[in-house]
Amino acid sequence: MKKKILFCATIDTHIKAFHLPYLKWFKEKGWEVHVVANGNLELPYVDKKYSISIARSPFKIQNVKAFKELRGIIEVNNYQIIHCHTPMGGVLTRLAASRARKMGTKVIYTAHGFHFYEGAPLKNWGIYYPIEKYLSRYNDYLITLNEEDYLIAKHKFKTKYISLINGVGIDLNKYQPRTYVEKNELRKEFGYNSNDFILIYVGELSFRKHQDILINMISSLKIEIPTIKLLLVGTGPLLEKYKSQAIESGVKDNIDFLGFREDVNKLMSLSDIAISSSRQEGLPVNILEAMATGLPIIVSDCRGNRDLIKDNINGILINTNNLAGFSQAVLRLYNSKEEVTRFKAQNLEFIKSYSIETIIKQYEAIYQVE
């Protein structure tokens, strides 16, 4: 009989975005792969997918039903490993797997960024920290993706094995530097000019990602850099608000709202700078992708970003709300080909330790799969 693994997350788009290489890896090892998540996506490498309505908020009554369904699935399938992701997916799965764990099932939880962090609202510490601390006794392994989360877990939580791993892995065949000619061909394909100065920010349009400060930044720079463009890739609850802000600031022609895209690698390759103004991150995939593309990077000095970008070594760190600091950093790179070249070289070297092949080896040691 085949061994079974269950991957759990709040929504199936999370599994598609970050974990398909691991589903494939288990399939190639001869395992039966199951997934539990909210949504109706068809996922490759999956033998059985259960769609359960898991709410992101811990206070939604539908999570009681989701817990019962999840416990039933776990108890009839005799999984050897259960690997859970996302805050509520992690909460419900660890509770639902408590009986199975006593029978030998290995339960692994990856924290993609705790809701409590340096500078977080006090309510986050009052609600989410006690929950995570209590539930830490319900998993065998806790995987963290940044140093701040790792140190909190190591010193405060009850999990026996706690690891710090370099993210979910980047496909270095998909994300790689392009030649000058290739870059300009992509610009023609997407309707941009060779002399445009293009910044790219990939992320949900939300309070956490803080795109409003970048819209103001573009307004402050458009006279000094007339050809400046900002590509905002992603959708989210503040899309219409940010579009209105761009119009009111007089920069609607300098900012492209591109929505959800499957061609982020191409958009990265035609850009000059990657930028992030996020208030907090786990370990940001958009920055890893930019590093692999060989872009110079400007980021806010927050958890997750600072794990990847070392100030003046492979990019520039700016205090989260420092509008002038972001503007000055863009101008600095606009005027310094030497610094751009240096940051590119450093990023192409740093990214090697974040490749999907490297990360799978790190997970293999945790999974201990024959």
Protein topology:
Layout: E1 4-11, H1 12-18, H2 20-28, E2 32-38, E3 48-51, H3 62-77, E4 81-85, H4 87-96, H5 98-102, E5 106-111, H6 122-135, E6 141-144, H7 147-156, E7 161-164, H8 180-190, E8 197-202, H9 212-221, E9 228-233, H10 239-248, E10 255-259, H11 264-269, E11 273-276, H12 285-293, E12 297-300, H13 305-308, E13 316-318, H14 323-334, H15 337-350, H16 356-367
Parallel strand pairs: 1-2, 1-4, 2-3, 4-5, 5-6, 6-7, 8-9, 8-11, 9-10, 11-12, 12-13
Structure description:
With 370 residues, this protein is an alpha/beta fold. It has 16 helices and 13 strands. Helix 3 (62-77) crosses helix 4 (87-96), helix 9 crosses helix 14 (323-334) and helix 12 (285-293) crosses helix 15 (337-350). It is globular and about 65 Å long. The two termini are 15 Å apart. The model has no long low-confidence stretch (mean pLDDT 96).
